[in-house]
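We treat protein structure as text, and this decision shapes the records that our systems exchange. The tokens are whole numbers drawn from a learned vocabulary of local backbone shapes. One such record is reproduced below, unchanged from the form in which we store it:
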Amino acid sequence: MNVLHTTDYVIVAVYLLVVVAVCVRVTRKNPDADELFLAGRTLGAGVIGLSLFASNISSTTLIGLPGAAWSTGISVANYEWMAALVLVFTAVFVAPVLIGRRITTVPELLEQRFDARLRRYLSATSLILSVLLDTAGSLYAGALVVMLFVPGLALGPTCAALAVFAGLYTAAGGLRAVAYTDVLQSLVLLIGSVILFALVFAEFDYSWAEVTARVPAEKLSLIRPLDDPALPWLGTLLGLPILGFYYWTMNQYVCQRLLGARDIGVAGRGALIAAALKLLPLFLMVLPGVMAVALFADLERPDTVFPRLIAEFAPPGLAGLMLAGLLAAIMSSVDSALNSASTLVICDFVQPRRPKLDTKALARLGRYTTLGLMIIAALWAPAIDNFPGLFAYLQQAFAYVTPPLVAVFAAGMLSTRLSANAALAGLLSGHGVSAVWFLATQLGWLDVHFTIVAFVLLVVTLVACALWQLILGGTVTAGQLASVDASRVEPAPRIVRWGAVALTAMTALLVIAFW
């Protein structure tokens, strides 16, 4: 499907040049480790909020949300508003601890609360997820989209080209380059999505009554029955907060922006900005997809909804802007994942073993690591084509891997008795159960929605931690408890707390309106 005109190619070229110019402008020569990984802890609230949004809105989101809405309805937007609530919680309760402890990686907090084994475990798991899911998945989805617009391209070389472009500026400029280019990319995403939404809504004479008359009612409901195959209400209530907590609070890929904030207030305001932005995809990406139910009855694959909307309704120039938005989504996800993965490798594995390395040497190793991880992701991305589907590949992996990690993190924050040995044994037990459950699901022995699986695995891990504590015993030192004691750090400012209340109310109204 080639819907591009000369104007579109010019817009894409100009966008790529602007990205390069912004990257060069904000990149310092030979940044040290603190600059490369945390932008010198100088990021402002606006940059943090827009960067969080852009790094999350990947090419899989731009393609997947409209496609899922066309196929199953707007309940796919539950991932978005739940993310807003998790970000609100993070801004008030978690960010003060992360910023107050002056940590560089989230796994570092687990070492302070438990020991180095838990730090390496979380770091290694996050690293694998970041490279093989976040980075490779974004490259794969992005390559598919580019191939739709530019026929004749091959999957492998397209993945490699996208990886090289994002990888080079990430290695050169680190988190500062990533964050500031993400600001540009988020603006392109928002502008393009607003225009496309307006064009699609125009087909219904800008009348919501017309939409409800032409689209089946069940596709316009956020809260779905328990037997709904896409997203049952119980999974929304119990499973999505767990997956969201890992993604927005424990995932270095996302949390690195908060760690790069100037202070606790800036981190909190940045998280709230991102939370507010996460309420927009329902309108800008999901509703156009569900409106397409009334517009396109001949689609063979849901993933073709987004390019079909552009082909049918975008005038010359807008298609180029939307393709630029897709490239923005790809690069913002890839650069974020690569930078965070490099941070995990250097700070959680290299630096503890080589404490005498200076910051320049660590930064140099960080750049080499970024390029190495870029190569791994680019090589793995085409292999995703052999899986049943990208959404299943991403969501099932997160649903089976992350709940035990969330359980141990939460227990460490809240429990004053859980020892390091019991936490590690509980985590291993939780992942053992998840591996057996995943195998049973693949063999057809179990058929439980992955969001409900996530909740059960969380409970199983918590129970396992409690049992192992009884069996192994062990004590917790005062220093370990102090590492997660919120009373020892500066609390979230009043403006952040009031902002959290306002955003929670807005989210509740949104859910009620589309119940």
About this structure: Residues 46 and 270 are 6 Å apart (CA to CA).
